[in-house]
Amino acid sequence: MYGSLKPILEAELKAAKENGTYKVERVLESPQGREITVGGKKYLNFCANSYLGLSGTELMEKASEEAVKKWGYGLASVRFICGTQTVHKELERAVAELEGTEDAVLYSSCFMANLGLFQTFFGPEDAIISDELNHASIIDAVRLSKAERHVFKHMDMADLEEKLKATKDKRLRVVATDGVFSMDGDIAPLKDICDLAEKYNALVMIDDAHANGVMGKSGGGTPEHCGVVGRVDFITGTFGKALGGAGGAFTATRKEAADYLRNRSRTYLFSNSLDTAVTGASLFLIGYLKSHPEYRKRLWENTKLFRDLMKKNGFTVSDAQHPITPIMLGDEKKAVEMGKALFDEGIYVIGFAYPVVPKGKARVRVQISAAHTKEDIEKAVEKFTSVGKKFGVV
Question: Consecutive 10-residue runs of the chain (394 residues): their mean pLDDT?
Fold first, then answer.
């Protein structure tokens, strides 16, 4: 039968290469960091989600090693059988404190957390109302649930209100949104969303993967940033970006909801416990960041410097309050080729095209980190400007 599948795949892959949507994975020959090695050459890294610049550092390596030494390599089991250790419960308490919730439940990834959430709580008698630009994990999780699905225009509160009115007869309704939208860096208007949810008796869920440890005075994420701590019912997040960069995730929520997830969430019940290295290192980092606000301070200084210099050099840059900085190009092929040209100049960035972003919204996305130096940022802007002129962008 593969003889029938093979030509279909070959044709699709050929088309993707021709229209610029084919994804090439560059292989790193070094730890993740502000500078990485690919093909024996060093590059300044402006691609990683390590916003605080901690992934690949000796700090995290040591915390990981100490966790494995104390708790062993892995549990070889799911949580409810014999896979829960003290360190897992301590991390859940630390996450709940960071997020301002009553409890938290650990997952292997934020994708699994989102899948486990919607399938567990919402069925045919319920409705999920989702922002049109939500992350793929929310989209797929909603599709796999049996709930009625509604999509509101991106951050459009009038449209959201109409969807809430239209679903008034449902048993449960939940508004689902990214906290920070990963392709543009814009922040969901959580206060307005919570106000509408309370007005129409709906729940609120956010995927805060790009905000955990970054947004808010203490790194509590978009609820803290937007002043709605305690008003969001479900917060999913990850340890795989700012909080260490390895992997693992959580759902932070109310006590009864967390208890229900531990009993009914299939992606929790039938997945091995979060590994000890990630669990222990994440627990260490959450505590460490409480006394080291300088990481977030430097991150925002670097973000402002990069955007100011890019605007000065003629680029159109958004004012989104997040280190994600997309350089919008529109043309799929131009975005991919400009990303390659910058790579050739020693700047590690990626051109994003469909299906990662909608057609016509291609861009080169820049990720700023606390690990970047002033010289790193100035060099990146210099290379962007010289390459941009070649492509007619500036």
Answer: 96 87 87 95 96 96 98 95 97 98 98 97 98 95 96 98 97 98 93 98 98 96 97 98 96 98 97 97 97 96 96 87 89 86 96 78 91 97 95 87
Same domain for 166 and 278, yes or no, is: yes
Same domain, 74 and 132: yes
Mark out the alpha helices in 169-240 (DSSP H runs).
190-199, 222-226
Q: How many CB atoms lie within 10 A of CB 161?
A: 15
- Do 246 and 143 reside in the same domain of the chain? yes
Residue 213: left if φ>0, alpha if ψ -120 to 50, beta else—which one?
left
Q: Which residue intervals of 27-135 are DSSP H helices?
A: 58-71, 86-99, 110-121
Calpha distance 178→207 (Å, rounded): 5
> Looking at 241, 322, 334, 372, which residue is catalytic?
241
Q: Write out pLDDT tens, residues 213-271.
A: 999 999 999 999 999 999 999 999 999 999 999 999 999 999 999 999 999 999 999 99
Q: Which of 182, 265, 273, 369 is catalytic?
A: 182
Q: Which helix (H) or strand (E) holds 166?
A: helix 157-166
Cα 83–chain centre separation: 27
- CATH code, domain with 115: 3.40.640.10
253-256: long-range contacts at Cβ-Cβ below 8 A with a sequence spacing of 24 or more?
253/101, 253/102, 253/103, 253/104, 253/105, 254/101, 254/102, 254/103, 255/102, 255/103
- 70 given a catalytic annotation: no
Domain of residue 268 covers 58-290
Rg (alpha carbons) of the chain, rounded to whole number: 21
The active-site residue out of 150, 170, 210, 225 is: 210
Q: Does the residue 2 lie in any domain?
A: no
The question of whether 322 is a catalytic residue gets the answer no
One domain for residues 183 and 79: yes
- Both 258 and 351 in a single domain? no
218 part of the active site: no
Answer for the pair 97, 218: CB distance below 8 angstroms, yes or no: no
281/272 Cα distance (integer angstroms): 18
- Cα–Cα distance list, 309 to 185, 226, 349, 364 (Å): 18, 28, 17, 16
Answer yes or no: is 3 within a domain: no
Q: Is residue 125 one of the residues assigned to a domain? A: yes
Burial of 162: CB neighbours in 10 Å, binned 0-12, 13-18, 19+: middle
- 224 belongs to a structural domain: yes
